[in-house]
Amino acid sequence: DQHGLCHCCSSVVTFAKPFVAEVVKEQEYSKELKSELLKFCFSCLKYPLLRAQLDQIPDNTEENPLRLFATDILDFLWLLGEPLSKVFLQNGSKPHAFDEQDLSQDDRLYCADSLACLAYLLFVHYIGMDYFPLVYSPSFLLQCNMTHIEMLLKRTEESMLSKGLDLFENCLLRLEDNSLLHQYLEIKSFLTVPEDLVKVTILCPTEHLRKKSLKILQLYIDKLGAEGKYKLFRCLLKTSSHAGMEGYIIQNIKNQIDVSLKIGYGRGWFLGPRLIPLLHIVLSLPEGVETDLLQNSDRIMAALNLLRYLIIKDPEYDNQTEVWTELIRTERDFLKPLRMGLNMSKAHYEAKITSTKENRQESHNNKTVCTLTAGGKMLPNMTPEMQLQVLQSALFTFDLIESVLARVEELIEMKGKTTKEERIRSNEDI
Known about the structure:
Blueprint lengths: L4 H21 L5 H16 L18 H15 L4 H5 L16 H5 L2 H12 L14 H16 L4 H16 L15 H15 L3 H17 L2 H14 L3 H21 L3 H4 L4 H8 L14 H17 L13 H40 L6 E2 L2 E2 L5 H46 L1
Helix pairs in contact: 1-2, 1-3, 2-3, 2-6, 6-7, 6-8, 7-8, 7-9, 8-10, 9-10, 11-12, 12-15, 15-17, 16-17
């Protein structure tokens, strides 16, 4: 506590206690004092508590002083006649988005930051839970908290971002798998929050928050029912704009198809006609032959693996996924453009490697290097050897894609021959 914040919080609580006691004793005659004390409590929730680290300090037997401060503030709210359930169910205003004079007294009191902090204290640290009625369903609590979670996930401060992730995780853990109804996705925040999780996973500079965000996204997927999963996958495939994330979603689609084929759960959404629009999105190249295969390699590999799985697990005579019905379209929109794009990309990179090797000796003699910029900033210089490593790594990626593509083409040809032979035998028998 280098800046004395904890000591200051403790002193403020000690100072406020007699005034709270006076309001409790003389409620009818202390309305103005009560109003000021409520403002004080909600301002403390906004700062410092929303930005404070409230986890127990490792190897420290003493209670975290900021946790004690949070407990005292929620005790004050209860004593001042503000039931925590009533406060929790407030929508919360965002004063920075409005003229302060246009806000009602309640709006100024129940600001979004304060309510988000209250929800975090209640459902993550269980501070004040003794005053909270245990009558609400887990899905209702999640619905009420989604506004707070959405607000916290849009913030850039690590302390607030981590609180949003913790609150969302805690709410999801209360739900049974496959129990969250698809109708909840009609509420805007139930789609924007997973989109925010994707952004955190891709863009957050803090590694442990990126990993946690991806883990919670998977938890959210697990809690949705089959129709909800289907709708979320379609949404994220259209909005994520990141090959790695698209590959992750395609892997989830494969898992759901596998469950549907094995035990029948979600058959209506991950088998038959409803699966076809999803396969059209997955088994395609964003820009046809001109697609950047290197940048989209994660998505392409996941799509090829899904197609290989479908061909092996769903034979043509069964065709539960209707992958065989769509085979001509798949070859036209995905396999043939991919083969052509691979040939062009490999030829281009092989030519670049040859050119770089020929120029390497001259570069050594002149001591020249390749200079790159990204976002207007100069990157470290690349020597010809480093350029070769990058180019060879790209070729390795193309070889990997080509090996899976060749296996898919081989499986399609084998299955086609088998089907043809079966038809011939059938005709001979007749």
